[in-house]
Amino acid sequence: MTQQAEKSTIVLFSGELDKAIAAFIIANGAAAYEQEVTIFFTFWGLNALRKDQQVPIKKGLLEKMFGWMMPRGAGKLPLSKMNFLGAGPKMIKHVMKKHNALSLPELIELAREQDVKLVACTMTMDLLGLKQEELIDGIEYAGVAAYLGDATEAKVNLFI
Known about the structure:
The protein is built from six helices and five strands. By secondary structure, it is α/β, with parallel strands linked by helices.
């Protein structure tokens, strides 16, 4: 009889660089220990999944405004503390590179290679006017019920 893999889930609610990095470091660590990992992206956490370039999609004014105000992709997220008008993320990225730490886009790619399940919250996408075409390829789309199904079976559930 084979033993079933342990499961962990993370809700990434924050759209801040340092919190997203922490979520992906934890997810990649758990995946390296052969756990099944789900990251459920909701509200501002969805910005980590946005494509860097603008995608031409017809939207209403309010949806366009949300798109203009939110950072576009993992490379443009602000820091939660010491953002300094955008200088803080540049400094932390420099320090990470100096210490050979993976960048957030590299952590996302590693998570995908390790089969971490990346799930975009469809309800939040509707509220913020985000379309699937605006998010990176290779992710899943689901509502809170799907996340709760994963969380019910998980030993570890984190909210970041």
